[in-house]
Structures are given as C-alpha cells and as structure tokens.
Amino acid sequence: MRARTCYVLIVMMLVVGCAPASPPPSPTAVLTAATPLEQRIQRVEHTLFPMSETGEISWDRSFTLAERMAHHGVPGIGVAVIRDYQIDWAKGYGVLEVGGSEPVSAETLFHAGSIAKPVSAAATLTLVEKGALDLDEDVNAKLASWRIPEDEHTAVEKVTLRRLMSHSSGIQDGFTNRSSSDALPSYFRPEGEALALTLQQMLDGDPSVDVDGPTVVVAVPGTSYSYANANYAILELLVEDVIQTPFATFMAETVLQPLDLASMTYQRPMPADLRARAATEHGVNGQPLPGKRLIAPFTAAGGMWTTPSDLARVAIEIMRAYGGDSDRFISPPMAREMLTPQIEVTEGPLAAIADAVGLGLDLADEEGRLRMSMTGGTWGSTCLLWAFPETGDGAVVMTNSARGTMLNFEVLLSLSVEYGWIADDAS
Q1: What are phi and psi for residue 344, nearest 5 degrees?
Q2: Residue 43: CA atoms inside 13 Å, Cβ hemisphere, count?
Q3: What is the pLDDT of residues 333-386, one digit of tens each?
Q4: Rounded to the nearest 5°, which phi and psi values hold at 409?
Q5: Cα 240 to Cα 242: distance, rounded to the nearest angstrom
Q6: For the chain, which residues make up each domain, given as ranges?
Q7: Nearest in space to 297 (alpha carbons), one of 185, 229, 172, 198
Q8: Which of 179, 215, 289, 308 allows an S-S link to 78, with CB 3.0 to 4.6 Å?
Q9: Superfamily the domain 6-419 falls into
C-alpha cells in the first residue's frame, strides 16, 4: 500500500527544492586507498542529515547511516543507485530481523508496497499493445468476476483502465485510508497461512471483512486525482478475467522472465529460496510482524517482494524504453504513454512534489527534467523509487520497518547531494 502521511510529501519537496546553495561538506574519514566509487559510497553512508516529521532538515551536523538507522529504529535497509541507465552500486545495511545477526545484503528482498503498482501498470500496458485491453474502454465491458457499481457519476463518464492506472477513476474504497499506526486489519495474514477472503469481498465491503465500506464511484471519472488501492485491485481482476491467468503468473511471464529478475516475485507464499533471504517486516512498535511477513488479497496493488536492484532494473527498462532504446518488456510507445501526464495534481499533499500522475507513477518537471517517483508503505516496510528518465539516474531505497519513511528520504537527500541531483541554484 501507499505511504499516505503528509509530511512525507513535504520532505520530498524539500529534497528537491530546499537544498543549501552549496553542497554540505564531505566526511573527512574517507579511506585514501579506496576507489572513487568506494569513496562515493562512503560519503553517502557518512553524510545523512536529520529530517523532522514536519519536513525540516537540520544541516548543522551530518550523521552516519548506522546512526540514523538506530535513531529511527530501523533494523535493515537496502539501497540501489542508478547512474546513466545502469546500476552504479547496491548495498544492504543492518540485519534481517531485530535482535538477530543475519545481515541485510544487496540480495535481500523487501516488501515493495505500492511500488508494485507501476510495475503492474507497465505489464498491463503490454496487453493494451496486443489489443487484449483498451486504455479508454469502460472496464465493466470486460470485467466478469466483479463489476464497478454504476451511479450518477458513471452516467457522465466511465471508469477506464487509463483512469484506474492514474487514480483518476473517481473511486473510493474501504481499504486505503489507514496507516501503519492503526491496528493491523484482519485481511492481512501471516505468510504461510491461507487468505481468508477474496478481492471481491474487499471491494464489496462485505460486513465480515475488516474494511471501511464498499468500493464506489464518488466523483465523475477523469475529473480529479484521488488515490485508492481499489484501482489496482480492479486492474488485477480485469487482467485475470481477460487472459484467464493468475496475476502473479502474468507478472512472471511478462516482466520477471524477460528481464531475468531472479529476486522479484508476486507469488504468495514466496518461493522457498527467496523467502530464505527475505527481510522480516517490523511494525511501528519495532517488533517483527506475525509470521515475519504479511500477505493480503491484493497482488497488483502491493504484493511484490524484490531486491532494490531488481526494482531498479525495472525502472531502468522503463526509462530506456521511454527514450526509445529498449523494448525488452515494454515498448517505447507504451513507456511514453506511461510517463505522459494523465491527470493534473492541483491540491492535496501530492501537489507539493508532483505536477501530475502518469500510468502508475507520479510525475514532475524538476528544473526542466522529467522526474518519476513512487513511495510504498505497509504495516512493516517502507520504500521509495526516485528517478530521472531523461538522464537515466535515480535510486531505490527499501527498509524492513514501518518506521523507515524518514530514513528513506534522508538517504535520498544524501544521494541527491553526492550525485548532483539537487539543482545548483536551489536555495
């Protein structure tokens, strides 16, 4: 699911728009025998600046990544940095589980939360290109296992795949507006247990289901942005209804196999070899979640586990396709559609850092550069994707803690300073 807290978006705005006029000093304890890349990594690891929950950055003193992990109570974090359409470096820090000794490495899998959405969107666009789906057709025309309730809003405009992907469908559901500080909903189950309900039950707001109400259309589709996990739950059902294949299988055949992503999965439970190197999720109380990891009925909206590197590889392919240099799983026309603004963001916290929403990604014009981004948060994990398609630069940061949001952005700030992603004239 998506990290929904307003201060996160304020912090994201600060990262790109409120940097000091000159970069902060680099750490003095750089190993002289280290390679230039090793020195760069060490500067990132030693130059984190604290961020408050109100979005203020303290530039007075820098801290090490280990110090900031301890401050936030985050057991483990993984980082992958993209430079010129390649992974520049990837590392893991901390431990898989609090109190344990098994270290996080570059091969550790984390729960991606809502960053599953843009990957799901990119895969679904391949069905559009094949003619199996239409971006602008009423999705009720092909939905068989569940249907969007018609009302006075859908009488004006219909809910389409384009609008589902860009959160402009006008849909409101009963399982989006909760956060990790709330009680864990009962539809989450420990990994290894069977799911007790279906997506259809969640969408219907079945009285026996721990959701806040049924999924309904509350605004004319196509007229405004409103984030809802149901958009991608419906996308998942639509794909399965049309191709008669489980969504996890579709993702494996469409994305994972063509890109040789051996450390990404939508399967529940995870394959044993991946589960053996997956991080334990930790709640806001700092303790492991039941069964170490949780599963939920929705797959397309938030069921992906991955290493930061494999997620970075997907981002790289989307960016390369956008520039016309790759079609390994998504074609250049579909990638350009994905990174074309679909609905303007004019109000609410997202407006602080995004001009518009594309098909699965938040978009912004940052000093003349296109920037794509997405955050993810669950009851036990946090993550972010931040990248510049026209230059092929960016980063993926993932933690195994619901407390990791601020740390993710502190790492992003350190990377932004080191790699020059902050505009020189920012003040």
Answers
A1: -75, 145
A2: 20
A3: 999 999 999 999 888 777 777 899 999 999 999 888 999 999 999 999 999 999
A4: -75, -25
A5: 6
A6: 6-419
A7: 198
A8: 308
A9: DD-peptidase/beta-lactamase superfamily (3.40.710.10)
